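Preliminary data (for renewal application), aspartic acid complex.
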Amino acid sequence: MPVTRREFLEKSAAVAAAGFVPRLPDDFGLNLSAGTAPGSLVEGSGAPAVLKGRARPCVVSSSNGLRGVKVAYDQIVSGADPLDAIIAGVNIQELDPEDQSVGLGGLPNEEGVVQLDASCMHGPTRRAGAVAALEDIATPSLVAKAVMDYTDHVMLVGAGAKKFAKAMGFREQELLTEKSRQDWLRWKARLNANDAWLDHDDDVRIKFTTGTINMNAVTASGDLASVTTTSGMAWKVPGRIGDSPIVGAGQYCDNLVGAAGSTGRGEANIKTCASFLIVEFMRAGMAPRAACLKALERVVAMTETRLLGPNGRPKFDLEFYAVAKDGTFGGATLYSGGKFAVCDERGARLEEAGFLFRR
Ligand code: ASP
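Predicted structure:
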């Protein structure tokens, strides 16, 4: 159901005012059992999958969404809209100053400025919204939804995105935490041994880091939604936009089929439009995990030589997450050892992701 501008502003204000950081509840047992729910999609040869009966409500996300999938799941089983529910889920990471990959506290670009990207899709209404290189607003997922709800556009970037967010009532704030500023200064100092910045011997941080949260949900009536939000690649060139705000790359959702999203090296994902591809593989009858693995094969095939190791494998990692309309789900990464978060009737837990290559 469309929200009025007033309802939207009240909700956003509540999120912004919350200010607290929910902690991991003790009862979030880390059940590492693998496997997905039995499917009930009628598999076709390229025809859209058709859901018989009701779906199993389910929320799937990157592993940093373990708290968020529980929040989102509880909301969807109480009747909330799936996009509202998963945005509430990712808001936890966006507002957590300790999570240096998203929102407040995210690692900055090479000039020390935090620039955020996000996009979302709402299956039932077939709408999408996105923002990129957004500064000074902690919850880009909500701004992306506002673009979707209140404009005739899909994507706003940079200064225009910030101006829009402020007009919509979002609060401007400094997103660079002291911890992230210190990390940036250390990175900067170590760039060149001969410059005027003294090196910090205590620093072992890798040159570039990534991190993001993607979350996808299906309700009992088979309605789907997806959202991805990030501070992008640490120390990026100012203005660099990753895959997260690109509809079809960072996330994608088709209410007839399923939803998918990604984390990891955005440059590799943008070239393959992998979230769209995963949904298309599911439309053709593949299970979510198999669809994620198949998309990873495409990523490898599209990797430029300079990013391949001597063994012909990519030097980066990329993670995909997917849920089908019937509530089956899966995730896959290029390299073994990856996990993703899921919440369904069995509770919130981490599951092992499928992989193409053993580490
Ligand atoms: N995909 C994000 C980006 O490239 C980063 C990440 O997921 O780690 O901006």
